[in-house]
């Protein structure tokens, strides 16, 4: 089984919640997503040109055998139910097959032909208003009969206009769905049209199916992803595109789709809105000529270029005579406080946004650097591999690989956690969470967030300084432990968000995709054991999730490379030869301290 493009496989064996039809032989590429240690929440498979038909056949087969109908009727029914076969079978159990067929506008059997037969054995076609010999006409399942030329023209137009899935009978007010075999028969010889028709029916499996989604890659790779279980997940397509199944955007957990949508919009017109906010805070329109006027210090009397004096606090026109705290003949009284409060509020909201934006942005920048590091490591591994005529991962460097993978994933989570906080503790849920509770929640969240942040920075530092330290086994030990604790911190943060924060508010905008984890269990006990290191966790702990991994490595044991234990210096030497460098310190972006 080719798993080269799969998502992270869960350690759990409990897949009872997942449709059993999923494990059939057509799996080309798939993945799973779940909280580590809990049942698999989502599982996905990649659908591409080669298996689009095959993946439907199973479902069509189930419907044809239970309802005892043809494949084309089964397809029409499934399309009517948006490929939700459970809903279809539910209605079947409740209301029977006749109801189903009627609901989906399927005419079950051949009716007597309905047409106007003329005296000389010819039929009068209601469409072209011609008399046609009977063998030049065709009847749909509903019985309505027209001449073949009219049918062909009608179907061709329907298909070219993209109505392949709802081609109905030509007769006035009939509305019966044209059966698939009849359509194909009538379109005999029109290969392109038939192909287009078949393609459209096949793609309905993705287009009309809430469990399937086309890969959002640009240019489009031609594949789709189908999900079983929780629809909130972040699958990776075979083309490498990683996306949120809910909204099709880049993976954004722990933000909900709604938060991410708001955020991307907000940062897209940040310039504009920032200018606007600045104007609100720093300028006021002249009551005379309406031009924005900026206050340049001093008292509350401002004079516009047009010569109009006005009160800065309330914006009303006044006369020029004033003292430092009073304008002659002008009282804005209580209103002044409101206006000042309003200005303060806008200013506070701006500062708040800037804080979260800055934190998010800093982590994004760190992520770029760390991804480069990952790329460089891959380059270095390839170089080492080629030398030994073996292409594949070097088990000796799994800990480094795992560490980087975990770092990149955790960095993404950490950055997005600021976006989450911006909305969670901002105004998105203010109707549902009291201000007091909100403050408690925020403190709870920030505690966890800071713990994650310090672990992530530590791991980042460890990995970025590898080339400067003497490469001994204690570094490997540090990295492995730090990788695991970053993983645990991420997992805890998701738990808090899902159970206590989003779990306590109405799921108006849905919940979030499960934490994917890095690949923390790839470093096996045996690898560490071989080097004579001790690890803090138990052997069972490691082997629990790595049994299959360890096995597959066992199979290649005995190859030339496996007998050699390469010290860190050797890797960095190889990297130097290949002119691959860790990023220089100036490229390493540090996160600014909190305000
Ligand atoms: Zn006709
Ligand atoms: Zn009809
Ligand atoms: Zn793709
Ligand atoms: Zn989304
Ligand atoms: Zn003016
Ligand atoms: Zn003055
Ligand atoms: Zn005033």
Automatic annotation (TrEMBL):
EC number annotated for this UniProt entry: 2.3.2.31
Name the UniProt record assigns to this protein: RBR-type E3 ubiquitin transferase
Alphabetical UniProt keywords: Coiled coil, Metal-binding, Repeat, Transferase, Ubl conjugation pathway, Zinc, Zinc-finger
Stretches assigned to coiled coil: 442-469
InterPro entries for the chain: Ariadne, ARIH1-like_UBL, E3_UB_ligase_RBR, IBR_dom, TRIAD_supradom, Znf_C3HC4_RING-type, Znf_RING/FYVE/PHD
Gene name as annotated: ARIH1
Domain named RING-type: residues: 121-336
GO terms, molecular function: ubiquitin protein ligase activity; zinc ion binding
Entry annotated with the keyword Glycosyltransferase: no
Entry function: Might act as an E3 ubiquitin-protein ligase, or as part of E3 complex, which accepts ubiquitin from specific E2 ubiquitin-conjugating enzymes and then transfers it to substrates.
GO biological process: one example: protein ubiquitination
Reaction(s) catalysed by this chain's protein: [E2 ubiquitin-conjugating enzyme]-S-ubiquitinyl-L-cysteine + [acceptor protein]-L-lysine = [E2 ubiquitin-conjugating enzyme]-L-cysteine + [acceptor protein]-N(6)-ubiquitinyl-L-lysine
């Amino acid at each position: 089984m080719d798993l080269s493009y799969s998502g992270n496989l869960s350690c759990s064996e409990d897949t009872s919640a997942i449709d059993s039809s999923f494990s059939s032989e057509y799996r080309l590429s798939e993945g799973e997503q779940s909280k580590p240690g809990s049942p698999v929440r989502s599982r996905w498979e990649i659908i591409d040109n080669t298996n689009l038909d095959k993946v439907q056949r199973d479902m069509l087969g189930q419907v044809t055998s239970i309802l005892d109908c043809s494949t084309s009727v089964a397809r029409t029914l499934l399309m009517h139910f948006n490929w939700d076969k459970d809903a279809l079978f539910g209605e079947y159990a409740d209301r029977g097959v006749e109801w189903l067929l009627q609901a989906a506008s399927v005419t079950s059997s051949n009716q007597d032909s309905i047409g106007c037969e003329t005296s000389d054995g010819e039929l009068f076609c209601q469409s072209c208003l011609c008399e046609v010999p009977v063998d030049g006409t065709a009847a749909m399942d509903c019985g309505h009969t027209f001449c073949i030329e009219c049918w062909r023209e009608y179907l061709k137009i329907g298909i070219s206009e993209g109505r392949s899935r709802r081609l109905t009978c030509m007769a006035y007010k009939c509305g019966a769905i044209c059966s698939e075999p009849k359509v194909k028969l009538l379109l005999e010889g029109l290969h392109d049209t038939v192909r287009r028709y078949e393609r459209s029916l096949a793609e309905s499996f993705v287009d009309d199916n809430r469990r399937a989604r086309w890969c959002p890659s640009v240019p489009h790779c031609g594949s789709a992803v189908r999900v079983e279980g929780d629809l909130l997940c972040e699958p990776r397509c075979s083309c490498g595109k990683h996306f949120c199944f809910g909204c099709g955007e880049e993976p954004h957990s722990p933000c909900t789709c709604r938060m991410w949508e708001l955020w991307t919009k907000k940062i897209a017109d940040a310039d504009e809105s920032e200018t606007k906010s600045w104007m609100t805070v720093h300028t006021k329109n002249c009551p005379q000529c309406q031009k924005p006027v900026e206050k340049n210090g001093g008292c509350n009397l401002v004079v516009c270029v047009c010569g109009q004096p006005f009160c800065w606090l309330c914006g009303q026109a006044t006369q020029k005579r004033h003292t430092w705290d009073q304008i002659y003949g002008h009282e804005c009284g209580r209103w002044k406080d409101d206006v000042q409060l309003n200005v303060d509020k806008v200013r506070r909201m701006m500062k708040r946004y800037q804080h979260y934006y800055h934190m998010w942005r800093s982590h994004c920048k760190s992520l770029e650097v760390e991804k480069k590091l990952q790329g460089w490591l891959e380059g270095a591994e390839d170089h080492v591999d080629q030398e030994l005529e073996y292409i594949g991962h070097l088990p000796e460097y799994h800990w480094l690989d795992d560490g980087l993978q975990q770092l990149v994933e955790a960095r993404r989570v950490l950055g997005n956690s600021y976006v989450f906080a911006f909305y969670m503790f901002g105004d998105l849920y203010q109707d549902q969470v009291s201000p007091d509770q909100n403050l408690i929640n925020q403190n709870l969240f920030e505690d966890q967030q800071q713990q994650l942040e310090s672990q992530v920075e530590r791991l980042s530092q460890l990995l970025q300084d590898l080339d400067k330290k003497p490469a001994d086994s204690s570094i490997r030990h540090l990295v492995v432990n730090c990788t695991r604790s970053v993983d645990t911190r991420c997992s805890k943060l998701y738990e808090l968000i899902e159970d206590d924060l989003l779990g306590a508010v109405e799921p108006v905008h849905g919940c979030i995709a499960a934490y994917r984890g890095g690949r923390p269990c790839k470093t096996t006990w045996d690898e560490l054991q071989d080097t004579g290191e001790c690890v803090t966790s138990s052997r069972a702990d490691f082997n629990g999730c790595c049994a299959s991994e360890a096995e597959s490595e066992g199979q290649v044991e005995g190859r030339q490379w496996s007998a050699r234990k390469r010290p860190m210096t050797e890797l960095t030497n190889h990297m130097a030869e290949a002119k691959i460098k860790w990023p220089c310190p100036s490229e390493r972006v540090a996160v600014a301290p909190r305000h």
